[in-house]
Amino acid sequence: MNVNYNLYLVTDERTPIGELLSIVEEAVQGGVTIVQLREKDTDGLAFYKKAIHLKALLKSYQVPLIINDRVDIALAVGADGIHVGQNDMPLSALKRIVPRSMIIGVSAQTVEQAQLAEKNGADYIGIGSAFSTKTKQDAIVLPKKTLKAVRDSVNIPAVAIGGITLENVQQLKEINFSGIAVVSAIMKAKNPKEAAKKFINR
């Protein structure tokens, strides 16, 4: 699958399913190119229901669905990919259970983590936190030079994540990211479609 990481939407789990589908659809119409369903504290059934509906919606727009952490949910709904953090299942184990066609993303905060992810076969990495964020309270903000060093250490696509807004996105312009991952700036926008359009035209 030829994946466009340019505008990567990560969902907010506090969003009820009806509202979630509406926001995501508007965001995709505005230019979002890939969507990650992130549900850290949601039980399996509720996560599955959100995933199955989101998969159907995104399929109609030919936009890939990535599931955060939960391999079982990703496999059950036929998601396009899975994204894991440094404390989740190791990439080597993950690759034994998911189809070869599945996109695998890994969060990285250091050059070593990024290079190991690439070596072990990750399709892309998420680097952050780029800025302070309320979405992930324990996130450590990486200095610009660290973001650049981690980005430049690999040849696979790399997406900046963490506290990215329309006000600060320009600060990342000199780093050659394949895309940016956005949560609140689209999920909480009054008009998600317009917000996405502005990020596309950044």
From TrEMBL:
What EC number(s) is this enzyme filed under? Answer: 2.5.1.3
Cofactor requirements of the protein: Mg(2+)
Ordered alphabetically, the record's keywords are:
Magnesium, Metal-binding, Thiamine biosynthesis, Transferase
Q: Which Pfam families match?
A: TMP-TENI (PF02581)
What positions does the entry give for Mg(2+) binding? 69, 88
The metabolic or biological pathway listed in the UniProt record of this protein is: Cofactor biosynthesis; thiamine diphosphate biosynthesis; thiamine phosphate from 4-amino-2-methyl-5-diphosphomethylpyrimidine and 4-methyl-5-(2-phosphoethyl)-thiazole: step 1/1
Q: Its catalytic activity?
A: 2-[(2R,5Z)-2-carboxy-4-methylthiazol-5(2H)-ylidene]ethyl phosphate + 4-amino-2-methyl-5-(diphosphooxymethyl)pyrimidine + 2 H(+) = thiamine phosphate + CO2 + diphosphate; 2-(2-carboxy-4-methylthiazol-5-yl)ethyl phosphate + 4-amino-2-methyl-5-(diphosphooxymethyl)pyrimidine + 2 H(+) = thiamine phosphate + CO2 + diphosphate; 4-methyl-5-(2-phosphooxyethyl)-thiazole + 4-amino-2-methyl-5-(diphosphooxymethyl)pyrimidine + H(+) = thiamine phosphate + diphosphate
Q: Which residues bind 4-amino-2-methyl-5-(diphosphooxymethyl)pyrimidine?
A: 36-40, 68, 107, 136
Give me the residues that bind 2-[(2R,5Z)-2-carboxy-4-methylthiazol-5(2H)-ylidene]ethyl phosphate, please.
133-135, 163, 183-184
The cofactor note from the UniProt entry for this protein is: Binds 1 Mg(2+) ion per subunit.
Tell me the ranges covered by the Thiamine phosphate synthase/TenI domain, including all copies. Answer: 7-186
What's an example of a GO molecular-function annotation for this chain?
thiamine-phosphate diphosphorylase activity
Q: What family does the entry list?
A: Belongs to the thiamine-phosphate synthase family.
PANTHER family assigned = THIAMINE BIOSYNTHETIC BIFUNCTIONAL ENZYME, THIAMINE-PHOSPHATE PYROPHOSPHORYLASE
Q: What does this gene product do?
A: Condenses 4-methyl-5-(beta-hydroxyethyl)thiazole monophosphate (THZ-P) and 2-methyl-4-amino-5-hydroxymethyl pyrimidine pyrophosphate (HMP-PP) to form thiamine monophosphate (TMP).
Q: What is this protein called?
A: Thiamine-phosphate synthase
